[in-house]
Every structure is written in C-alpha cells, then in structure tokens.
Amino acid sequence: MSSVQDAIGSMALMMLRQRHSDAAVGREEIEKAIGDCAQLLARDMSAEQHAAIVQELETRLIVKVGRPTRLVDERGHVPWYFGDRKEGRRFFKRYGDFLLQDQGWPPAAIEAIDLSTDLIMEQMEDPNRDGPWDRRGLVVGHVQFGKTANYAGLAGKAADAGYKLIIILAGMHNALRQQTQRRMDRDFLGYNTTPASGGAGFTRIGVGELDRSIHAEHLTTQAANGDFNRAFADNLGIGVQQRPVLLVIKKNARILENLNNWVNEVLAPRGDTEARPLLVIDDEADQASVDTGEQRFDEDGPDPDYEPKRINGQIRRLLSAFSRSAYVAYTATPFANVLIHDAAATEEYGDDVFPRSFIMNLPSPSNYVGPGLLFGINGVGADTAQEPLDVTRDVDQDGEAWIAIDHKNGFAPRYEGEDSIPPSLEDAILSFVLACAARAARGQRNVHNSMLIHVSRYKDVHQAVFRQVDEWVADLKRRLKYGSKTRDSILDRLRELWEQDFVPTSATIRATEIGATLPVTDWSAVERELSTAADKIKPQVVNSEIRDALDYDGNAAQGLNVIAIGGDKLSRGLTLEGLTASYFLRPSRMYDSLMQMGRWFGYRPGYVDLCRLYMTPDLQLWFRHVATSAEELRERLDHMAMIGATPEQYGLRIQSHDILLVTAPNKMRHSREFQVSFQGEAKIQTVLFNDQSRNQQNAATITNFLDRIGPPSEPATQTGFKSLEGRRLWKGVAGAEVATLLGSLLFPDEARDVNAARLSAYVREQLGAGELTDWTIAVLGGSGERRTINEWTFKTIERNPLPRGEASGRYVVKTILSPRDEAIDLVQSEFDRALAATNRKRAAAGKDEATTPDGPEIRRVRGENPKRALLLLYPLSPAKAELHDIDVPIFGIVVSFPDSRSGRSIRYRFNTVEQRLEPV
Hints:
This protein is about 40% helix and about 15% strand. With about 900 residues, the chain is an alpha/beta fold.
C-alpha cells in the first residue's frame, strides 16, 4: 500500500476498535470508517485504493471462530475457576492487549484464545488447593493454526492463578526450542532472555513494553545453548518462590534427566515440590512423549516393574515428583496420543500420559487454511465430500526421474543426465516469484515470503539440491534484470503461467468464503514487481547443520524472501513465514508425520489464491485420506462431548489405509484394527434440534412419508389409524422410500451417527446389491402429552434433557432407544435365538441371564435375511424437554441395520477404550 493508504488504513483500524470494541465488524462498518478517515485527512482515493484498504481490514477484522468442545472427567476435581479467581489476570491482560494493539489480531481470534484457555484452566486444579492432585489433559489443535499463541495465553492465566513452575516441552530440535523460547519471551516474559552485551541487562520486548510491573523468572534462554543447564540454574539460585518461573526445554532424555535431578536434589529438599504447583505444557505431544515400549497387561493390570522409554519415563518422573501437577498436551495430530493404553502405569514412574482428565477440541478460525480445504474430505456420495481449493499441481516424479522415491544417502539428483532441476521445480520457483510479485502489487510489501523444497531427508542431498536451485535462481535473476531490454523468453513463460494458471485459479477462489475479499490483480501490476521480487529471493539449506538459517526477525523491516531446502527440521513445528510455494516429494507412510510435514497449512491473509503445492497425485490422495481421518476423529470427539462422555469413556477409532500407517507401529501396539460399516449396527440419534422451525419440518417430512406408505400392519385397521395413540407398525416398506426419508430429514451436525446423506447413500448402495429392500417401520408411543400434525396424532415419549445441551442450543438425551424395541420385527423363534446367543455371551462374562437380547445379536439374527431392516421413529415430548415453544413432536430416529456380507466396510484402528466399548 502507499503511505496514504497505510495512514488511512491504520486510522480506520483504530476507529473501528473504538467504535466496536465488543461487537462484530462487517463490511458496511469498515467502509464507513475508511470514508470517515479519508475525509478527516482530506485525502481523495481511487476506487482501487479504497478496495485495497477494505480488503486488508476485512482480512484482519472479520474472523469467525467456533466454540471448543471437551470431554471431561470430574472425578477428584474441585471446580474453582470462576468469580474472584478470574479477576486480576495481569499476565493474560497484557498478552491480549499485545495481540490486539501490536500484532493486529482480530478481536474474535483473541476472544477464542480467552475462551479456550478459560475452559482448560477450569479443568486444571486450583494451584492454591492442598494436594495431592494430578490432572492430565490433551488439547487438539490444527497444523500451523496457532497452538503457541494458545498455550502462551494458558501460561499467562496459570501464572495469574498461582502456578509457580511452568515448563514447556518444545519439540526435539534446537531450532524449534529456540523458536518457542523467542515466542514466550515476547508473549509471556516480556523481555529477551539473552541479555545484550556490555552488561546492559534484559531488553524489554513484546508484552513487557505494555506492562513492566509484573515479572516472571526464567531458567532457559534464546541462545543456541540456552536449554536447561544445571550450572546455570544453580548460579541463578532463584529456585521456585513467589514469582513464576518459566523453562522452555526440548524433549531430550539427558536434559530431562538433568532437570529431574535438579528437582529432586534442589527443589525437593527446600519443600518446593510440595509447596509449589507444577504446570507442564507438552507441545507436539505426539512426538517423543508417547511411550513406544511394550508393557505387558494381564487380568491383574499392567506390569508394575516395566521400564518405559527414556523421554516418556522422564516426563512421568517429573510429574510424579510434585504433589500438585497439571499436564496439558498440545498436538494437531493426536493419533498416537489417543492410542496410549488408558491403564498404563508403573510403580516407579506413575501413570502414563493418557489424557484421563480432559480432551479439548479447538475449532479452526474461518480464515484458517487447513488440510480439508487444501486436499478435500472423502465422503459417501457427492453431498458429503468436500472438494479442495485448486492450488495443487501434479509432479510426474517417475517421468522426470530427477530424484528417486526411495533414494539413499549420497544420491545425486539429475534431470535427463544433467546436473539441473526438472521442469516441475522450475514451474514451482516461477510460481513463487509470481506470488512474491503479486503480493507486492497488492500492497503487501516488505513482508516475508517463503518457499519450501522438501524432497529428501539426507543432508548431502539437501546440498546438491541447493546448488542446483541456487544456480537456476541466479540465472533467473539475471534474465529478469536485463531481459526487459531484449524481451527474454522467461518473461513470456511467466506471463503464460500467470494468465493460464493464476488468473483462473484466483477467480475460482474468489467465489469461495475464504477468498471472498481477495482483490483482482492484473499482469501489468505483477510485471512491474518481478525483477525486484526475484532479486530478494535467497535459497537456503535448513537442517541441523545450519544454525539460525531463517532469520525472519532480523529481516522484519524489509521482509525475507527465502527458498528453504531441507528435511526433518522442516517437518514439525518450525514456521515458514508467508509460505506460498511448496515442492514436496517426501513420502511418509505415517499419518502424523505426513500431516506435520505440511508446513503450508495456516493463515494466508490476502494471498491464499497465490499459494501453490507441487506434489505427486499419490501424495495428494494420501493427504486427503489423512484429512478425512482427522476430521472423523474430531467429529467423534464432538459427539461424545455432546452426550457427556469422559475421556475414559471416549472410544476412539481412526480410519486405516492400505499403504499408510496411523502412526509408528511402536506407538500403537495397544490398538487393534477392525472392519467397520453400517452393517450390523444401530444408529441412534441422541442430539436433536430445540427450535420450532426445524422440528416442524421434520414432523411434516415424517407424516408425509407415513401418508405415502399407507395404513399400518399393526394394528390392522383401514380407518382411524392416524389418531391411534399406541405403537403403529408397517411391514414390507420399500427401501427406496426409506432412503428418501432419511435423506430428507434434518439432523444437527453434532448428531454424528445419523448423518442424512451417509445413511441415505448406504441404503441406496445396498439396494443395488439386492439388500435392505424390506423395511419394518415403527412409530412408538409413550406416556407424554398428545401432539398433532397433518391430522396425525402422537402420544409422545418422555426423555430427560441433559444439561450440556442447553449451552449448545440442542436437545440432548442419553439415548432414545428402549432396548426391547430393536427386536420389534423378530418372530418368536428369531427372538429366542438372539436371546440365547446373548445369554451365552453373558454367561462367559460371568453375568446374570437377560430377558431381552442385546442389539448385536438382534442384528445378527436379522442378518440371516439382509433384505430386512428396521426404522424406529420416536415422537419425543417437548414438554419433558422444557421446550415450550414447540407444538409438534420432536422426532428422533433409530436405524437398525442387519449383518451383511456385501456392505462396504472401512478399516479402523481402535484404542483400548473403544475395544472395551464396542461389541465387535
């Protein structure tokens, strides 16, 4: 932007924050503020300049964030974080002010951090409460979505509340530990922990420039050798007293052991392990923290003498050393964490880090560019699938033969026998140049722009790739600098790439929600910026042999344009600022590793249409599968939270793959793989709408369906059946009718088991196989009030509402199914066989005989003829639900599918909780 645009934009931003400090801001308010500021400054603007400021402010201010969901176990927990305990939060207040005033965060994003960290604090324990107590939780975020910002807020609130020792476990590499320390210096401590030379003391930075009256100590620094050091800690001699103390350490067994020795030899004799509460924040908690050893379990429980792996054991030893501790794990890829055995423990090291106290699912903001957006989500039929943004470009790795898929150390990349890069990488670099130039043309000057090249894990291959890229980029710079005089062909190639790729892609993305505010950028504006943009580009190797390779902070004034070439160091946690182009050929066959390699996820304000991902079609499909599995995991968590399950009741299943592994085999040794389908399952609705409009529509849909299928089979009458108050039963109803009904009903998003599109698609799929053709439909009756709609009368069924539904705007029940109802279509001999099979299982488990068969046995008997299926319609009482504005029945459904050999199955990996819960 020009200086005039910058001035008007900054002034309008301040005006909007004053006018709408507690309210959402829309386009109309933004345009008015810009007009007012232009008038105050007596400046005229073109339509293009006005649109550019509007777009910039919309990107910064209009962000929507959902509400976190959580599973909690209240056993042994005393509620505490309310009222006076939330007052005087000075650490957190200055952090929120810093994000708003200095970083320009949208208020909604700051409010989301405030809300989610409040919910986490509620599930930790009051640091003033006498011990012993020990809380263990897991926070599930998204790759590159802002976990550090979230736990910086949590650390501030914990310090405000009275937690005295705060330890952050920050990955396994020095670069990631240093990156995290820099963030915590800025966002929590408020000073640079590496003091300036000459004895000048600590420099105030970040939050410390807003409020200097509060102070926390540190035992680690930003320096490369600034990890925990016993001598450094002893020299400081601060211990853990009244001021909070922060440590940011990497997950290294030796460093953790030194820390534990200091705790036991210094803090414990002083009484600090009894008097001072501990908070451990475990970043990237699925890496290194999970025990990969093979602990044995028998009927008496886990082997008490088992020796866990070193890092896991040292973390557990640290937690066990304090009588009062809270452990909060953060990860975007929780596959390994949820597969931890929930009962793992030893006498020496205590419980494993299974999140038994709470699991929280953080929603992604509306401006987050995540895996589902970039790669899409698989679904059953077109209605449930999510298609990706058109930003991925295919690489023919085998055809170009530049770098072999399974190459070894020492491999020399060659294209057609030459020591040069292939055409696909040339295109990726040209796309990066175009993105840098287009961002500058849009007013995003002096910002960071990064490109990722990740094709190998080997450092000597990184050097070979760097040399080839560096030579090609140097030639590109020369041609752009002098080519305008001779009309170099590279300009034609860049223009062709812009007009045939960027122009149509940008137009398509502008039609989506995330791209609605993107400006139109023409070629002439881009062309003017090409030479300058390319001239700033610097290829750079980023691996463990290169220290401080990406100095974004040191280049904040002019922006850094970098092509980062590396492997493992770029695979997890490390942030590439302004990442626009990625060239990725590094296959990982583990979900978590593959997803963490995706450094391209995150926020791309004003330039998401300029981003490009170059990879093989197979890798694109792999990422799509992992994105689908992660989304299913979150959906199941949200659903279990809605019905009030605890983490130990939270049966988790993760969709498997023919080639990929969910996580490393030694991290999932306690899980088991099962085939899962709708076949042989009962889908029970437990979450319902609590408003008149949607319940009216569902009731009308169901009564129209009942009109179409005619008089019931039971009671056998041709007249008056619409006003009957008891149970009504229809037999031999066509499967196509049921599929249409299921596809037409409205279900809350949280009602995961009864997704309309998936249920309807499965029924139609099975009809094609000659199954599910013959349905029994039952409308049940109860003892509630009568409700009439479309001349049909229903005696409603009473189900108590669960309190947790009220906050989410839903009517939530524990279950609507009466167990005997599922056997409603069985003849006596079938009922007897199902009951006998049920009681054989109960006898083997040492349980008393039942009088009603269980669901799996009912569905197994029904599966002897897989043409048959059952739909139960429950007209629930609005009065019992205390929903007095609803005058129709609140219909809930149960669909009971028979066993089937032809039903499409999906393989899932079950954690230990799910193995106990599911009757597989």
